[in-house]
Amino acid sequence: MNTRNPGLLSLTAGSEGIVLQDGELHRFLVSKLDTLFHSWGYTPVHTPMADYADDYAETVGVSVPPYTYRFVDREGQILSLRSDITLFLVKQIHHLLKSAVLPLRMCYSDSIVRYQDAIDIGKNEFFQSGAELLGVSGRDGDLEILVLLARVLESLDLPNPVIHVGSRELFDQLWSDKNQHDKEEARKALSMREFRTLSKEDQQTARLFSFIGNTAEFRNYATSWSSHISKQAQVALDELIDRAATLESLVPVIEVRIDLSELGSQGYHSGIVFSAYLPGADSSIASGGRYDRLLKNLELEVPAIGFSLMTSKVASLLSPSTQLGDYHELANRENFEKRYHQAEALRAQGKKVRL
């Protein structure tokens, strides 16, 4: 039975169109990002739009997320649409990693489809650009991806971007005595900063995760932690401070905040996690982090970290006229041949010309 109200403005679930000037701006952004990724040595990859849904739990060790769209193919097999490029990418290349020459640097620009909300019109499909670094562990891998994200934000000349850096490892260490269900509930509560939903015992630990500020402020805030946390948690704490402080020094034009409620958007995240925000955006425009545990599910000791940028969110905050410039109009409107030769001369100078 069709329950859709034909009187409501709606799009086909999971669809998004990019046309006219928006389409031109979208292509401009993707081209700019592709050029930047290429200059860093990242190779383009493309993941399938659909894959067998039941394979993920067995092959990758992680089931496809619950917000994934599923459908039945002509042979009766259940397929899932691409809702997470990282997950689909790992599934696609995992059998190559045992013999691959590491590190692997990969980039992509593609769509994902995921169920958001029945009244969130047209926002089930998102276009992402991102980068994945496999085979570089620890400090060097963390900083390469963090600095690359900062350079992306800088290159797009976005208005006052801020990168929030947190630590999934610190959270895992401080909640190490909890079962998986309780840990996940705590992670959700901390990410949403809804501390009251936690038990009184957990609320005491949760207060540590209320901090948002710069590295210098966090150093002062964390001085009293040493006597209350394990050595493993202290290591995670020190790594967080180091990554944030180094990012601040390497790309000073981008504001960096340590945000302990930043715990990663996916269950497979580990170690350093981060998101980028802009004034006027209703949520993060980019997110990422380390995901070593996803590959460990495949019995692969391959460190991995990456990020994705929501290209459509970024485009909506930019002015097409200022980013793309205007088309040059030709004075001679009588003779096509003369207009063509004049236009070619102007295009050779880098100008955009309409005949």
Question: How is this structure best described in words?
Answer:
The protein is an alpha+beta fold and 355 residues long. The chain folds into two domains: 305 residues, BirA Bifunctional Protein, domain 2 (2-Layer Sandwich), CATH 3.30.930; 31 residues, no CATH class. Helices cover 39% and strands 19% of the residues. The strands form three sheets. It has a nine-stranded mixed β-sheet with strand order 1-5-6-12-11-10-7-9-8. It has a three-stranded antiparallel β-sheet with strand order 2-4-3, with no helix packed on it. Strands 13-14 form a two-stranded parallel ribbon. Strand 10 and strand 11 form a beta hairpin. Helix 4 packs parallel to helix 9. The longest helix is centred in the N-terminal third of the chain and has 20 residues.
